[in-house]
Automatic annotation (TrEMBL), chain A:
The chain crosses the membrane at residues 6-26. Pfam families: FixS. NCBIfam families: ccoS (TIGR00847). Keywords: Membrane, Transmembrane, Transmembrane helix. This is Cbb3-type cytochrome oxidase assembly protein CcoS. The lineage of its organism: Bacteria, Pseudomonadati, Pseudomonadota, Betaproteobacteria, Burkholderiales. It comes from the Bacteria. It comes from Limnohabitans parvus II-B4.
Amino acid sequence: MDILYLLIPLSVALVFFILAGLWWAIHRGQFEDIEAEGERILRND
Amino acid sequence: MTRVNVLPALSSDTRAATEALAATQAASSQGQNPEAERLQLLDTQQEWSAFSLPDKAEVGCWRSSVVFEGMHCAACAITLEDALRSVPGVVSVQISSASHRGQIVWSPARTRPSEWLQSVQRVGYKALPANDAHAHETRRQEARRMVWRLSVAALCMMQVMMYATPSYLYGPAEISAESMHLLRWASWVLSLPVLFFSCAPFFGNAWRDLRERQISMDLPVALGMGVTFAVSSLGTFEPAGPFGAEVYFDSFTMFVFFLLMGRWLEQRLRDRTAGALEAVLNRLPDSVRLRQTDGRWALISIRRLAVGDVIQVMPGEAFAGDGRVVSGRSQVDEALLTGESLPLARQTGDRVIAGSHNLSGPLEVQIEQVGAATRYAQIVSLMESAAVSKPDLALWVDRWAKPFLIFVLIASLASAVFWWPTDPAHALMVAVSVLIVTCPCALSLATPAAMLATAGALARGGVLVRKLSALQHLAGIDTFIFDKTGTLTRDAFQLSQTHTRAGVSAEQALAWASSLARHSLHPASRALWAEARAQAKTGIQGAALEALNAQQLSEQAGQGVRGQLQLPDGAWMNLRLGSSVFCDSPPFKSHHLQVSLADDLGWMATFELTEEVRPEASQVVCALKNAGFTLKVLSGDSQAAVSQVAERVGIADAQGACSPQDKLKALQQLQANGHRVAMVGDGLNDGPVLAGADVSFALGQAVPLAQSKADFVLMGSQLDMLLATVLRSRQTLRIVKQNLIWAAAYNAACVPLALLGWLPAWAAGLGMATSSLVVVLNAMRLAKSTASAVHRRSPKA
């Protein structure tokens, strides 16, 4: 059970890590135009 | 209408017209690429900062907002992005195929707006600088912040729930105290961002209200959040304290998430309404071709345009200001500003409005209003002020909200005191549930959300709502009073009868009269010229009519105009067109406007002109009658003329020769008999009557909007929208009532549950958010365009 002392703080750190990623995505406007990201697959380059 | 027997202010301006034509040709031959020249005007910082902001990420770069025209699909967006990226100096491009908007980041050291705008044109699209860029940007920032707050709450909520699961599933004996403590610590850490970031707006608003000694919905909510977090923190760090070891981090994060969800949806509804006129906002061109003193055309920025300037507007371009056409003939599209879907003909002397589009031919326009004085700017500001006005129902709700909130605070305190002896922690959580569940958000959202959605939808159909509360009054209307002149009839005249001397046919007389009338702006002359053209179209003499063009025109003020006409056989004829005295006309007994024509032999013909009834008037009257409304005409015109028009449109009750006082008296009489009256007028002459009526409509075309006192303005001057507006207002009121009943019932049901301690805090949060959500979604049903309502108009609606 001692591993919990590592895993639980790690899961907290993971949440903050995911939040950081989410911050980056929101502030790059990725959720403002959902379709555009999907349409990128049609691009030539 | 008083009888008019004179024909003043005839003018001939053929000289100006030919001059303008020559200048047009000069303009088109002078620059090889006028479009490029036009775009280069944007190449100063002063100009581009109107649609650009300094970019935050790329130092020294600008971020410009652009609206694209001609874009249809995702492939278009890709083509445009490729074209823009190929321009050296363009750092990044983002184009949304859904909104047809794009953001372009570019470096002023390496490129200019004109360069990348031209690259868009080379691939066959059109890009317009977005003049509402700043407002749009603010809205976008707010939306982003909201989504970010919501995301933080959502993610933390999920994880806190994970940490809480063991305590729900296993008894204290099955988990070691250390593990439990660790889980609580982790929950506490993840609740911190929710408390300090996601809840910040609630705490901010509550603090502001406390300082101003006000009470609002955010106060109980913030109090509930604060108490929950404090109790749970104590439970984590002082398990032996008075509140025991119980923690509520899961409830706390969950109701914050639900609350934010409701706020987020509410914000989206508001943005949609605010964006309803967004397309209109980008209509003004950024540069215009101005006629200079030497007659040449020069491109200038719209910000330097002044009243009195003459500008040239090519087909496909938008008018930069309100003005009058001085030469040219074209059709214009005013659909977005007036709701009039058909192209409208415009020729010399006609008015054009800023933001509408020129469709077919080049026009020269003398500017009469620029900037904030234009109809366009007035429409925009009217929409904005209506959006912040509070409807009566909402004021009523707000008045009741305050005592209700005080009751909530007292009730939660009482419940805490009541439960305290048994279990202090439970007592506090009951109090929190009461605080959260009773938040009257739904109650105060019910009215404005529905009315704003309706106002947005009506604006797209060409009806401006000046006061939201008028929607509420309109729903109860049972009587319509119409003014005659300019309301049931147009300002224009129609030829009704022609008297001629022996040997002259009516058609011949009209053709000769039109040779003079075609040069005049007087309404009577224009009616004659229009009638002559209409007859020529059906007859054989189209070309012959064009050839009949009087020369040597001279006018006698207040009397009429004289001129010489060369007949096909080469002989010259002296013609006079004007009052009966001017033309020595014999008297004809009639209450219509008369215009006479005379030649070298004396009096030749007299034309009787009647007012032209609006083509849609009788249909609208019929629809309103079928819908059960009482209709009445009140006019200052003679009884005979009023009766005649009323009969033609199908209204039996017509009263003529009314002074404004008489009208007001008749109106008050109706109101005293228990009728609720809507007045439809031109919005200017009937000031006191409009103010006295329960609801007033004005036909927007004739009157400066700012001076109009009416509650509703029919932008296209079409009566069609009357019934649709009434029906829509009834629907709105129905939805408002549904919303209010729902919100009140929700509160009535949940408060006792919470007081009894049967409602945990998370369920309170869920219930509160759901009630707001239901209200907002119900209101969104009204945001649909009114166009369908017009076409589906059933007689028995």
